[in-house]
């Protein structure tokens, strides 16, 4: 009963913060040409995937613990499963591409490409979306509505990713593959890349032995690498508990479900969707550029509202003054008429 009230409230906050934050990130990148760097294009692609997840699946998944069963039909069962897996794939594959980009920028800064970096980055982002869509289509094809019958002749509709006859072995295999593809392999690649970058950045010569321009450039690259690493850490925090619960439930639980696993189920479920709203907060806290643009948008909105209020106030004062002048003129004419 607690989850029936808590989960919708949490998902409402996720929806509000995530839609506003990711929309602002995309708007800032599209509006400002200087912000269309390679890392920011990947970050914009990441924000787009999160926004798609927030706008469609989140409103339906937010009611799972409130409604008695899945009332939305098979089409939405398949669509939400596809979009959740698509967003997950876009997120982790984009973070891997971001880490590889930071590795190249730090380890091979003098390497030159014949094509445009922007075009190359956009092509990579599109390829990531296509690969994630292909993987997500597998999830979509597995989704179906099952009717679970109880002993008292009651029934419940369940949106599942397996058929009943596959349940014993298939869900363990599916869950293990999702863990490997969407977590283990990318995180290992990212970890290796960052270990190599850390050895280059923190064990190389000090900045005092380099020119001021070179030291400033290295410091900028280090900040971007730390930002990307922070987003990766947030991804791990948000998704690892969900993978742990799913692996336990479908591979090793064997009827040992208790309150600990129930709480972990609810918490991990909320955390996995919370990942779609925390990245804009990380950008605001860790990126000077994004924070400056966020403040500019807020100031512009406040200035626009203040100007509107000022114009309304001026209009009201003008109207009041005109009314007073009319009343005074009318009173003068009345006095003159009485004198005559």
Automatic annotation (TrEMBL):
GO terms for cellular component: plasma membrane. The chain crosses the membrane at residues 6-30, 42-67, 79-98, 119-138, 179-197, 224-250, 262-286. Its main location: membrane. Pfam families: 7tm_1 (PF00001). CDD domains: 7tmA_Bombesin_R-like (cd15927). One of its GO terms (molecular function) is neuropeptide receptor activity. It is a multi-pass membrane protein. The keyword Kinase does not apply. It comes from the Eukaryota. InterPro entries: Bombsn_rcpt-like, GPCR_Rhodpsn, GPCR_Rhodpsn_7TM. Keywords: Cell membrane, Disulfide bond, G-protein coupled receptor, Glycoprotein, Membrane, Receptor, Transducer, Transmembrane, Transmembrane helix. It is found in: Cell membrane. SMART domains: 7TM_GPCR_Srsx. The keyword Chaperone does not apply. Residues 21-283 form the G-protein coupled receptors family 1 profile domain. Belongs to the G-protein coupled receptor 1 family. This is G-protein coupled receptors family 1 profile domain-containing protein. It comes from Capitella teleta (Polychaete worm).
């Amino acid at each position: 009963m607690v989850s029936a009230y808590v989960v919708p409230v949490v998902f409402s906050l996720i929806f509000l913060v995530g839609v506003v934050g990711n929309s602002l990130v995309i708007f800032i990148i599209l509006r400002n040409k200087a912000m269309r760097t390679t890392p920011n294009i990947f970050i914009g692609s990441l924000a787009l995937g999160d926004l798609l997840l927030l706008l469609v699946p989140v409103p339906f998944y937010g009611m799972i613990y409130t409604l008695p069963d899945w009332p939305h039909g098979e089409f939405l069962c398949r669509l939400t499963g596809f979009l959740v897996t698509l967003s997950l794939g876009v997120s982790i594959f984009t973070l891997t591409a971001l880490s590889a980009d930071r590795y190249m920028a730090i380890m091979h800064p003098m390497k030159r490409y014949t094509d445009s970096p922007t075009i190359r980055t956009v092509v990579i982002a599109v390829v990531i979306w296509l690969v994630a869509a292909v993987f997500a289509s597998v999830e979509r094809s597995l989704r179906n509505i099952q009717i679970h019958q109880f002993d008292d002749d009651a029934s419940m509709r369940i949106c599942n990713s397996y058929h009943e006859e596959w349940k014993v072995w298939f869900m363990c295999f599916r869950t293990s593959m999702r863990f490997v593809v969407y977590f283990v392999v990318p995180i290992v690649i990212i970890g290796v890349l960052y270990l190599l970058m850390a050895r280059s950045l923190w064990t190389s010569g000090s900045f005092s032995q380099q020119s001021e321009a070179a030291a400033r450039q290295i410091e900028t690259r280090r900040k971007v690498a730390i930002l990307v690493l922070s987003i990766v850490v947030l991804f791990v925090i948000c998704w690892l508990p969900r993978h742990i619960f799913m692996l336990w439930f479908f591979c090793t639980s064997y009827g040992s479900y208790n309150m600990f696993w129930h709480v972990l189920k609810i918490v991990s479920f909320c955390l996995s969707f919370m990942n779609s709203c925390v990245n804009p907060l990380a950008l605001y806290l860790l990126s000077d550029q994004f924070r400056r643009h966020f403040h500019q948008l807020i100031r512009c909105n406040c200035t626009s509202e203040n100007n509107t209020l000022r114009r309304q106030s001026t209009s009201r004062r003008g109207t009041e003054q005109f009314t007073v002048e009319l009343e005074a003129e009318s009173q003068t004419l009345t006095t003159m008429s009485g004198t005559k």
